[in-house]
Amino acid sequence: MLSDRSYMRSDYPQETTSVLTWILSATLAGAALQFAFGQLGFRGFDALFALSLDGLRHFKVWTLASYVLLHGDLLHLLFNALGIFLIGREVAPLLGTTRFLQFYLSAAVLGGVLWLGVSALGGGGALVGASACVVGMLVFFALVYPEREVTFLVFFVLPVTLKPKFLAWGLLVFELLGLFFSELPGALFPTAIAHSAHLGGMLAAWVYFRFIYAAAGWDRASQPSVGFATWLRRRAPAPEAPAKIETKPETPTRRDLRAEVDRILDKINAHGFGALTEDEKRILDDAKDMLSRR
Known about the structure:
Blueprint: H1 18-39, H2 44-49, H3 53-57, H4 63-66, H5 74-95, H6 97-123, H7 131-144, E1 150-154, E2 158-162, H8 164-183, H9 195-213, H10 228-232, H11 254-271, H12 278-292
Antiparallel strand pairs: 1-2
């Protein structure tokens, strides 16, 4: 039934797209194979798919993306899988299947490139985990919805509510401090956390938002104008616009409404929720109201 579709169940999209399901499946499969080969004593599996300077010297260019399928331990996998699911189901409908996959891979590659730059300074080792992609999705969400209040559980116990833009800024500060004090050669508090990869994911999110999402004008009328630069910039008061008289579209019949809703849902599947016009969103709301009265 139409009312069972994910688009009709909430005020904003939370669909888990097919691409998100494939990414989660590939991530879990990669971890399972990594564990299985590790138990068999075959250590070459990590060397084949993890990202490292030595691997690139041997022309393993696929490791710029494949490293996100491997993880350091079960907890590392659990947190990243939760991040992919919880944040990805918010971001994927905004971009659509193809663009979401492009963005996810861009965050992986740029995160890997920044990590390689730091590794070339003397860090060495290998990079695994989808954290760059998860952080990138979180920052992209913050760029699209900077003012929306979000509640999450710290340590799965303590509820905390804050605006995504503050979370993004706090994360940026944390990653920069981690880069300088725990990752760069000679750091005071060395750890195994790849802060440089996380920063690469954040950079990918900003670039994708600034030059692809916002530049294309997707849903610009209904979403705030945001960006790291605009948050720092003081805005002059906007001149008053002349009053507009809005006319309500005619209420469609039930048959026409169903046909129009099916067309809109096909558009969401192809291009993401952000591609809808205000009239199309209004039609979805009318459809929900009609279904609730049945």
